[in-house]
Design brief:
The complex is a heterodimer of chains A (214) and B (385). With 214 residues, chain A is α/β, with parallel strands linked by helices. Helices cover 52% and strands 14% of the residues of chain A. Chain A is built from 10 helices and 6 strands, in the order βαβαβαβαβαβααααα. In chain A, strands 2-1-3-4-5-6 form a 6-stranded parallel β-sheet, with helices on both faces. In chain A, helix 2 packs parallel to helix 3, helix 4 packs antiparallel against helix 10 and helix 7 crosses helix 9. Chain B is of the alpha+beta class. Chain B folds into 3 domains: 155 residues, no CATH class; 81 residues; 137 residues, 2-Layer Sandwich (Heat Shock Protein 90), CATH 3.30.565. Helix content of chain B is 67%, strand content 10%. Chain B has a 6-stranded mixed β-sheet with strand order 4-5-3-2-1-6. In chain B, helix 1 runs antiparallel to helix 2 and helix 9 packs antiparallel against helix 10. Classes of the chains: A alpha/beta (214), B alpha+beta (385). Chains A and B meet through helix 4 of A and helix 7 and helix 8 of B.
Chain lengths: 214, 385
């Protein structure tokens, strides 16, 4: 798997390169600022980009903006955004083009190497991986007028797992139910959120987006 | 109907004012004469002391009455410009009065009021009486002129206004320093009891892991997992601390983006109406953001509201943020220290925070900060979140 990495702190950049290379990922280029990132993404067209939100020159949300910009040029380009903090607003912006292949994780998640590499692969395959903190913020206070209100607590739990990027099999294992029961829940979620039948992956993205809009 | 009603009432009041002031004018002249006599015979303590104390005690309410008239007529506040009173004996009071320029201006005004003033009051009286008979006349002008004259003599001098401003600034600067010191103490405490303590625990856990490296690999794996959890918790606390100091989204996106993120994370539906043609300075953005966050938290916690509306504007050089909710009202600034803290913080920028919350609602919290916006970048945003 070919990866472009954007991280301005040398220590973390080297760490991530080591970690990815040790897990069958080839880091084709590692950059430390947003303009180089845009150029690297358009020239290499990697399988996935791993991007820090805060990059030079302004040290604000350059990385996020560059990732969104790159996806305008290359629709569906898989991007995994890493950050020291997560913001629902940014998650929504990342998902707004509705084409999937988006991850948004706290840097802490790198500690669990296995899970982190799974997330990278999942995003590269067009899936969605939202940080559990984004998801839990939403679970803590879902609104009275949100479309999610029509979901049962069980369905909301399934949707939370979907947002974190788990497959039906993984959700089944987590919730101690059968995979068939999970797919029953997901179908019910899709119909309650008014998502017409289409490729399952895309509907999952849209459901997560509805979730973030809640 | 109502407009003519208030106009008629105004005329009645003006007539009453004019009559009162005309009748009281001789008293003013008497006070002037007595004060001058008191000053002339100053060395004769037995006479001058009681005389001056008496005129001082009477001149102030006499002048206050005319200040009230000026304020009513002109529709502006005319606060007494005297230096603050301090306890002390009669001699001390006289000494203070002699050093207070406002007292001397009172004294200079008394003869003016008793001569030119009376003429103006008389003309004003005739005017307002005429008005009550022949309604569609312009004016009355004489009373307004008299009020202006009184305000000039009895209102604050430029110097007094500056002195008051300096006192205000001294107070708000001291408060700002206090707030900053308290913040630093809080951060120190949070770091000490939170992230630092967790990192110490992490070091110990790693030490134990090192010891069990050879004897018990299974135990070591468990301990390493524990170490990772401790590290995550430490990072989590640091994140919380940073959010409390300066939320990263505020640094990234400025006030508008940060407010949108705030509203998005709110369990209550909040409609947002923001139109800012530029950005205020960073300290003002931060103060207003924390003000909005505190106000919104109060709505969520205490108001039982079903929805709220947030409005942000920059009008006539003032940044205005208004948060209204449909809750049960009865919010009190003094009930929680949160909004008081925001008020002190805003005062550093001459900003204000006011709460209007009748029982039964609705509640309206308004933050106002006079400031200029930088760069003519337009960032309008209207979203239902």
């Amino acid at each position: 798997m070919r990866v472009v990495l954007a991280e301005d702190l040398a220590l973390l950049r080297e760490g991530l390169i080591q970690l990815l290379e040790a897990n069958d990922c080839h880091v084709v280029e590692a950059v430390d600022n947003a303009p180089s990132l845009l150029r690297a993404l358009t020239t290499h067209r990697p399988d996935v980009a791993v991007v820090d939100v805060r990059l030079p020159p302004t040290f604000t949300d350059e990385g996020l903006r560059a990732a969104i910009e790159a996806r305008r040029h290359i629709p569906g380009l898989p991007v995994l955004v890493l950050s020291q903090y997560v913001e629902q607003l940014y998650a929504r912006e990342l998902l707004a083009d509705r084409s999937g292949g988006v991850g948004y994780l706290l840097k802490d998640r790198v500690f669990d190497v296995h899970q982190f590499v799974d997330a990278v692969r999942h995003v590269a395959a067009g899936g969605t991986a939202m940080d559990p903190e984004v998801v839990s913020q939403l679970l803590d206070h879902h609104r009275a007028d949100a479309p999610l209100q029509s979901l049962t607590p069980r369905e909301r739990e399934v949707l939370g797992h979907m947002a974190e990027g788990r497959s039906n099999a993984a959700i089944a294992a987590r919730m101690f139910i059968t995979e068939k029961a999970v797919s029953k829940h997901t179908n019910s979620i899709f119909s309650r959120l008014g998502l017409p039948p289409s490729a399952d992956d895309n509907r999952r993205v849209l459901a997560v987006l509805a979730y973030l809009d809640g | 109907m109502r407009a003519t009603g208030t106009q008629a009432w105004r005329l009645v009041q003006q007539t009453a004012d004019a009559v009162t002031l005309i009748l009281l004018a001789p008293l003013g002249l008497l006070l002037f004469v007595l004060t001058v006599v008191g000053i002339v015979v100053l060395p004769v303590w037995l006479v001058s002391m009681p005389l001056l104390l008496l005129t001082l005690a009477l001149t102030r309410p006499y002048a206050d009455l005319h200040r009230g008239f000026a304020a009513r007529t002109l529709g502006v506040a005319v606060p007494p410009p005297y230096r603050t009173r301090e306890p002390g004996g009669a001699l001390r009071q006289l000494g203070r009065a002699a050093r207070d320029p406002a007292r001397w201006r009172d004294l200079a005004w008394l003869p003016v009021n008793g001569t030119v003033g009376v003429v103006l009051y008389l003309v004003g009286l005739v005017e307002s009486l005429l008005h009550q008979i022949l309604a569609p006349l312009p004016g009355p002008y004489a009373l307004e002129l008299a009020a202006r004259c009184n305000r000039r003599f009895l209102g604050s001098s430029q110097q007094a206004r500056l002195a008051r401003r300096v006192a205000e600034l001294t107070r708000s600067r001291a408060a700002a320093v206090d707030i900053q010191a308290a913040e630093l103490r809080r951060i120190e405490r949070d770091l000490h009891d939170g992230a630092q303590a967790r990192l110490v625990a992490l070091g110990m856990t790693l030490g134990i892991a090192e010891q069990s490296l050879e004897q018990d690999p299974e135990r070591m794996r468990r301990i390493l997992g524990q170490a990772r959890d401790e590290l995550s918790a430490a990072l989590g606390e640091l994140r919380g601390l940073v959010r409390g100091m300066h939320p990263p989204v505020l640094a990234d996106r400025g006030l508008v983006g940060a407010l949108e993120a705030l509203v998005l994370a709110s369990p209550l539906p909040v409609s947002v109406d923001i139109a800012l043609p530029g950005r205020p300075s960073a300290p003002i953005e931060s103060a207003v953001y924390f003000g909005a966050a505190e106000a919104l938290t109060n709505v969520i916690k205490h108001s039982d509201a079903h929805r709220a509306d947030l409005l942000l504007r920059h009008q006539a050089g003032v940044l205005v943020l208004r948060l209204t909710d449909d809750g049960h009202g009865g919010a009190d600034l003094d009930a929680g220290s949160g909004l008081r803290g925001i008020q002190r913080r805003l005062a550093t920028f001459d900003g204000t925070l006011s709460v209007d919350s009748p029982d039964g609602g609705p509640t309206e919290v308004v933050l106002e900060v006079p400031c200029a916006l930088s760069s003519p970048r337009t960032s309008p945003s209207s979203a239902r979140a």
